[in-house]
Amino acid sequence: MIRLQRQKVFDLLKKDSSHLLNKEINVKGWVRTRRGNKNVAFIALNDGSIIHNLQIVVDVNAFQNDELLRKVTTGACISVNGKLVASQGKGQAVEVQASEIHLYGTADPEKYPLQKKGHTLEFLREIAHLRPRTNTFGAVFRIRHALSFAIHRFFNENGFFYLHTPIITGSDAEGAGAMFRVTTLDMQNPPLDEQGKVDYSQDFFGKETNLTVSGQLEGELGALALSNIYTFGPTFRAENSNTSRHLSEFWMIEPEMAFYDIHDNMDLAESFLKYLIRYLLEHCDDDLAFLEKMYDKELTARLNMIVGKQFERITYTDAVEILENSGRTFEYPVKWGIDLQAEHERYLVEQEFKRPVIITDYPKDIKAFYMKLNDDGKTVRAMDVLFPKIGEIVGGSQREETYEKLYGRVKEMGIHEEDVWWYLETRKFGTAPHSGFGLGFERLMLFVTGMGNIRDVIPFPRAPQSAEF
Ligand code: 4AD
Ligand code: MG
Fold first, then answer.
1. DSSP for 23-41, written as a single string
2. Ligand having the closest approach to the CA of 462
3. Which pLDDT value is given to residue 164?
């Protein structure tokens, strides 16, 4: 086969390819469909660079390789040399008239699981090694990339530094829910101490370690030196929550800012979310249009709503009052002090305000130890951002910067001082008011793709009983 410069389908369909018209080019990819008759074959080729397929036209009689053409079936991988021409058919601007085809890999039609269209998302989850080849997952993973890129771009444009916080930690930032243990001890025969407990001083790090639930505590150390930082990495939670909004391994973006109070924090969260959605509307229109058609007719309208509306800001106490006076019966009854459930959050966003809502000043007993205590002694400077369809998408707060108050909370909540002594020291040496928040990347992915299950917006979902691929 003659060596020609490979062209990506994206470049041929989305960029100006007029300089290549009527020239021989090369394209490579996977066959989505092959149809036609004994004279002409039409191959729909997809290389993942874009949702659309490139049409390859084969003059069967001139081609003289029936043997090879027979093997060009759905799922097969091919390389095609041919002339790029303006398309005669409708639906595409250009197509390729094949002169040579090389078959990299066949896909036996009897066995290839994606032979037919229209598989359920549940079935595709069972073949997560092949689902990136579908239109749906191609679109989702391209959007995932674009969203990651936009996140870094936003922070870079705004003077934030990307700080890499550890994945293996000796502390428990949130104090809620279980953590995954990291150990090299022999599980069959662990060393024991005098009390008969596992002796972690003999473990790899000389202490108990876990996978992190959040990069925040280390992020704060960075902010109290570099002013504005953010983390963007995997976090791990061993809660046994089998819901459509929870993963055991998910990605979180955590900005942390010195000299920000809770209002600055809310302003940042709001402009950040709007920026990201605007970026996707501008850069992912084809993929969004596909997902809108297939899964969520109101997708673009909802994305535009976020960009166009000011987020409502209310206190927890006011939110509880609204919920109590709503005349609704909720599955979890509402009273001051309870943790708000998704049903409550969605009522506020979807029924009451019809826009994103930021709730502040939650009871201290349902929030983490590091949040700044209000003067009432009962509530903390927490802020959660609630989105339609999702509920909580961002959780954050102004941090307690006074040593004595923070130390008091550590003791009150039974946190081991020896695990967080370094965190406490930042309040002893040059403490500063500061704030930050965590955005659940997959929660935002759920929102922007219109997908219904969080396992369908991450390539290899980790959830209870699920770590096959
Ligand atoms: O509210 P969370 O637990 O807050 C923190 O971890 C803080 N350290 C953040 C900070 O202030 N720097 O988690 C933050 C966000 C949630 O709002 C939610 O979007 C997401 O992370 N999240 C999950 N996403 C998927 N699966 C789970 N199990 C999640 N738990 C939290
Ligand atoms: Mg939270």
1. SEEEEEEEEEEEEE-SSEE
2. 1
3. 98
